Amino acid sequence: MKKYVGAIDQGTTSTRFIIFDRGGEIVAAAQKEHAQILPKPGWVEHDAAEVLFNAIEVIGAAMRRAAIAACDLAAVGITNQRETTILWDRRSGRPLYNAIVWQDTRVDAAAAAYAKNGGMDRFRAKTGLPLAGYFSALKLQWLLNEVPGARSLALAGDALFGNIDAWLAWNLTGAAGGGLHLTDATNASRTQLMNLATLDWDSELLREFDVPRAPLPRIASCSEVYGEITVPPLRGVPLAGMLGDQQAALVGQACFEPGAAKNTYGTGCFLLMNTGPKPVQSRAGLITTVAYRFGAEAPCYALEGSIAIAGALVQWLRDNLRLIEKSADIESLAREVEDNGDVYFVPAFSGLYAPHWRPDARGIIAGLTRFANRGHLARAALEATAFQTCDVLAAMAQDSGIAIQELRVDGGMTVNDTLMQFQSDMLAMDVVRPRSVETTALGAAYAAGLAVGFWRSRGDLPADRGAARRWSPAMAPARRAELYAAWQKAVSRALNWAC
User: Fold this and answer.
1) Tell me: the pLDDT tens digits for 153-209?
2) 305-314: pLDDT as tens digits
3) Is the dihedral of CA 295, 84, 139, 396 positive or negative?
4) Residue 252 and residue 448: Cα distance in Å, rounded?
5) Measured between alpha carbons, how far is 442 from 449 in angstroms, rounded to an integer?
6) Positions of E strands within 108-171
7) Would you report the helix, strand and coil content of the chain in percent, each value rounded to 5?
8) Type and span of the H or E element at 152
9) What are phi and psi of 335, to 5 degrees?
């Protein structure tokens, strides 16, 4: 009997392979970072070939650590950074250009031009998304128009488009020798080319964005046997699960009931609420997205608030300002001071995402006096993530009419007790972290395992609904209101910068 399932967790800064047992416990894991390519201000790229190479390397490393072979794995799932866009040659398998990362701002002007005819919400009824350079459609349009020969290859069916999930799946199942060109409904819902009602590519949207249908992958469910992996050391293992990273975390947190919400604190910060079998159109600046679709079941939808910069701000302090030596040092530095010293950091490096959707915003540090020191900057950086989450949660309550009772959290930043306590204080609600913060990979493992019967049903999943750590609010309401008002003032100063 197969003992394990595996999950490829391909993120914005690194790739991991994690092996889980039937109890959802981690057996082994391996991780490797990839380069962040920044050719121009606002441009963010990845070398797709490097990402693939790293994925294969960490798969081998984790399997060696677990002392297992392919025959021990029941299935493998993929979870990935969403919206990041790749166009590659079907015949050679080589990318035609670097992957354009979700944070990239090069097509913001194109989004603004589209918005002049019908506004930012002109495609929201079909896609659940506002017009923004964040999503894949305009990134793909840029590749087709700006990369020499790309459009002709695409029209001939010799160029393939996909987000990272499709790129990995195609390469793992045969590449140019017959690789499967597919994506899942969660990733497809982030392209701005899929119709939320039909879960298929929409002909009107393809015409509007001038994108041919030929390069687009087949849209599959999140949990089904797509085919067998052909690449060592996973040769013969079913590829059976695929979810965008934030939807995977929702599944990993067992948020299967309408109203259940989670927030993932990673490079960015992403808050999702399960809204059930019908999509809820947002009036408060959120995204309507597919939460998951298992096999032939009806899809489940979610409201999402996407924050571009969370952990990336800590990395920026580490790499660009050299304020800290390693990311984990941010908490001890922040604890050197009692409060933020009236310093506020708005990390609008790529504009502000939900609920503002202001590509003209840029990062600012406000409230500086000679009293401020590096500890205040560190604390302001952590607090920025919590403040942005407050903005999104307020919009979510407005859209859904549901008062969230507690916030389930995961991701690397949740090991930071200072941040989590401040988050609880600012939300005036409990913040709950599960025993394992690797819920993104766990969600992909759940999807793959369900497809092959490793787990019989969702009720059979070893979902940890208890809390390994719970933070409860301890801040006086007047102080909470004072801090949040100052944050909103700082946000107002960041607007209209790049216009």
Assistant:
1) 999 999 999 999 999 999 999 999 999 999 999 999 999 999 999 999 999 999 999
2) 989 899 999 9
3) positive
4) 12
5) 10
6) 159-162
7) 35, 25, 40
8) helix 150-155
9) -75, -5
